[in-house]
Amino acid sequence: LNLYYQASPSVALKAAAARANQFVREIVHENRLGQTMEFFLLSDNEEYPVGVSNQFMLGTNIQFGRFNLDLELYHKDHQGLIEHSRVFPGFNREEDEENPGPGQNIDYRVFQGDGTTQGLDLLLRYEQNDYQGWISYTLSKTEHRFVELFRNEPFPSNDDRRHQFSWIN
Q1: Is residue 23 within 8 Å of 50, Cβ to Cβ?
Q2: Of 39, 42, 21, residue with least CA distance to 30
Q3: What is the C-alpha radius of gyration for the chain, rounded to an integer number of angstroms?
Q4: Would you write out the chain's pLDDT as a tens digit for each of its 169 residues?
Q5: CA–CA separation, 72 vs 15, rounded Å?
Q6: Largest CA-CA distance found in the chain, in angstroms, rounded
Q7: Contact, 23 vs 13, CB < 8 A?
Q8: Alpha-carbon distance 24 to 83, whole Å?
Q9: How much is the pLDDT for 91?
Q10: pLDDT in the model for residue 99
Q11: DSSP H/E element including 164
């Protein structure tokens, strides 16, 4: 659902809401040497649930002269997150205390959880004849939570990028 309202010739308001389902899931497998391999599989709604996200956005677009300012606030709820991990990560220290090697425990498990992403995007664009340039800044926070990991406390996702700055010329 997208809403767009032109409040004046130079000011527009916008809002959006969406629900997305992800049936093809990406699994990242890390072997006992720390090497990773990515593969895809179809959701089965049991061990590999369908990923669901509800996304919301509010924003405005303001035009002043050759400048355009765009601001968006967003929030996204993630359900059905999956994390494929070793049950006991790390090195096996029992065999050789002086030269620990990769752990021999190769017991893997799929953990299921949820998460949130929220933040704001700010873009300032300048256009003149054949020249176009813009500066953008993103402030966001992405957290995941798994019942059986970290005592069900939220923790930053691998994709969490608090501050992003871009300059395009």
Answers
A1: yes
A2: 39
A3: 22
A4: 999 999 999 999 999 999 999 999 888 777 666 677 788 889 887 778 899 999 999 999 999 999 999 999 999 999 988 877 766 655 555 555 665 555 555 677 778 889 999 999 999 999 998 899 999 999 999 999 988 878 888 888 888 889 999 999 8
A5: 9
A6: 74
A7: no
A8: 14
A9: 55
A10: 58
A11: strand 163-168
3-state secondary structure of 152: helix
Which residue's structure tokens are 């969490």?
A: 160
Q: Are 142 and 159 in contact (CB under 8 A)?
A: yes
Closest CA to 127 of 83, 64, 85: 64
Q: Please give the C-alpha separations between residue 148 and each of 110, 142, 158, 159, in angstroms, as whole numbers.
A: 10, 19, 18, 20
With CA atoms as reference, report the closest residue to 115 among 86, 149, 61, 79: 79
Tokens of 72: 């968006």
- Two structure tokens written together for 119: 């933040």
Place of tokens 């089965």: 44
Which pairs with CB-CB distance under 8 Å and at least 24 residues apart come from 140-144? 140/164, 141/116, 141/117, 142/115, 142/116, 142/117, 143/115, 143/116, 144/78, 144/81, 144/83, 144/113, 144/114, 144/115
